[in-house]
Design brief:
By secondary structure, the protein is an alpha+beta fold. The protein is built from 3 helices and 6 strands; from the N terminus they run H-H-H-E-E-E-E-E-E.
């Protein structure tokens, strides 16, 4: 048997196949390379977009955090302002309406002195009550008072002025806290600028019964 023709055909077929593969493989390689380039480019674009998105998220979070901090600070300032304003209002109202203050004692003693018959006769009515020596003084002043501790008790002295038709006088008051934490009177004196019935000082005693003196 002669096998040469088959061998030749086979060789030719292999040679043809090799040539075909040699021609096709570069195209496939080019296609694969382009696809890989596209994939890499797309990955780069996706990475860039993701990076920008992350940066945007970080900026947004930072802005929100800063805004939250500002809002918190503003809220604290507002709360502090409200508390301070409330404290000031309390102090003002307490000073104006509480008896246990220099202004409260001043108002109470003024009524006691104006109701005292000896003071009325000595000074002559009408009687003006003022906190400064000059009646027409435009200077704004508070009640003159001194607070101190005496024998373990809180004490206070208050002074103001009375001016009547005949005379004028200086009122001197001393009060002391009792166990009920209320001021009780030690004395109320009116010192006259000129003697009246051989008296230069009027002691306001009879009116003290109208003031709570519980000890």
């Amino acid at each position: 048997m002669n096998f040469y023709p088959f061998h030749l055909v086979t060789k030719q077929w292999r040679s043809s196949l090799f040539r075909r593969i040699s021609i096709i493989n570069p195209r496939q390689l080019s296609t694969i390379t382009n696809k890989q380039k596209k994939d890499i480019k797309q990955q780069d674009i996706d990475s860039l977009v993701q990076s920008q998105t992350n940066q945007t998220d970080i900026i947004t979070f930072t802005q929100k955090a800063q805004q939250t901090a500002k809002d918190s600070i503003y809220s604290l300032v507002i709360i502090a302002g409200v508390v301070t304003l409330g404290g000031l209002c309390y102090l003002i109202l307490h000073e104006l309406y509480s008896r246990e203050t220099p202004n409260g004692i001043y108002k109470e003693v003024s009524k006691l002195c104006l109701a005292n018959t000896d003071v009325q006769e000595a000074l002559g009515i009408p009687i003006l009550v003022h906190t400064t020596p000059q009646i027409r003084s435009m200077r704004i002043s508070n009640v003159r008072a001194k607070i101190f501790d005496e024998k373990g008790h809180r004490s206070m002295t208050v002074s103001f002025y009375l001016t009547g038709k005949e005379r004028s006088g200086v009122v001197a008051v001393k009060v002391q806290k009792n166990i009920s934490n209320r001021f009780v009177y030690d004395y109320i004196l009116v010192q006259l600028d000129r003697p009246w019935h051989n008296r230069s000082i009027i002691q306001v005693h009879q009116n003290l019964t109208q003031v709570p003196l519980d000890i």
